Known about the structure:
It is built from 8 helices and 5 strands; from the N terminus they run E-H-E-H-H-E-H-H-E-H-H-E-H. It is 53% helix and 13% strand. Strands 2-3-1-4-5 form a 5-stranded parallel beta sheet, sandwiched between helices. It is of the alpha/beta class. The protein is globular. The protein binds thymidine-5'-diphosphate.
Amino acid sequence: MTGLFISFEGIDGAGKSTHISALVEAFEAQGRRVTLTREPGGTPLAEKLRTLVLNDAMEPLCEALLMFAARRDHLQQVIEPALAQGDVVLCDRFTDATFAYQGHGRGFDLAVLSTLERWVQDTGQGIRQPDLTLWFDLPPAVAAARLANARTPDRFESESQAFFERVAGGYAARMKADPQRFARIPADHPPERVGQAVRAALVDRSWLSPSP
Length: 212
Ligand code: TYD
C-alpha cells in the first residue's frame, strides 16, 4: 500500500482535534495503519522545541528556524519512515502553518520561508508535501469566542484577532497557490456537519469508502 500524508490546518480554535481522532478510527476501520502526529513536535527533540517555541519569547527568524528544525527531525524520524511502510500519516499542522503564522501573522519574509521549505522537505526525490491538507476555515471572531473559554493560552493563542485575520489570509493564499492539495472545510457549523465535510473530502479522493 502506498503511504498517504494528510495535514490539518486552521487558526487556533478552529476545532480540528475531534475530527482528526475520527479519521484515525475511520482509516483503521478500513484496515489501514495510521501514524498520528503533530507539529511542532512528533519526536522527542521536536517536542522539546515545541515547548520552547510555544512559551519562550523570541524574534520571528528564531521562531521560523525552530519550526523548521523541528520539522526536519520529524520528517526524518517519523513521517518518511511511516510513509515508506505504507501508513496513513495524519499530521496536526505542517508547513502551511509556518507560512500562515510566521509569514502572514508575524510578517516574516515569505521568500526565506520558501527557501527553508525546499531545504527541509527535500527527500532526495523531490520536495515532500502533504497529499491533502484539510483547512478548517473559521472566522477569527468565532475562534476568539471559542478560545476565551480555553485553558491558559500559549504565545500564539494569546495573539490578537488582527493577528488571526492575517493568519487566515495566509492559509487562503497557500490554498490559492496549490488548490489541488487543499480541501477547505467551513468550520463555523456544528461538529457533526464539519465531520461530514471532512469525510466527504476523503471519499471524493477514494481514500475512504462512503459511510455504510
Ligand atoms: P496547536 O496545533 O493549536 O495545538 P494545541 O491544540 O495543542 O494548542 O498549537 C500549535 C501552535 O503552534 C499553534 O498556535 C500554531 C503554532 N505553529 C506555528 O506558529 N507555526 C508552525 O509552523 C506550526 C507547525 C505551528
